[in-house]
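Fold it.
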Amino acid sequence: MDTTKTQWTQAQLATFLNNKTLTMKPYNPDMTTFEEESPVWEVVVDGNVYSRGWNGDQTKWFMAATAQNAGEISVGDQDFTARFEMVNHSADLDAKITAAYKAKYDGQNSLPKMISAGPTYATLHVLPR
């Protein structure tokens, strides 16, 4: 994979839009093995991919992802190397991400938790690496 890319392609974004979950695989400190593999919800907002930690900043994959800022993800039948950045929170961006969660996961029992304060704080921007 081209490691100079900073944005997902339109085809990759379509894959994120058309799948309900991605598998988050943040690296351990050795940068070759994974802390864990966790299926997580993800949304696309303004051409960017975001994911929230269910237990806020105490979510195990979130803690590993923010410690290393790198790992791999799988979505659909595709695997990608990725980097993870904390979201630069603003009322507008948080509202857009919450709206995307509501639209994509409408009717899911876990939705109220994912749009609550803890998970909203623990939002990562998922980028290609």
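Residues 98 and 115 are 6 Å apart (CA to CA).
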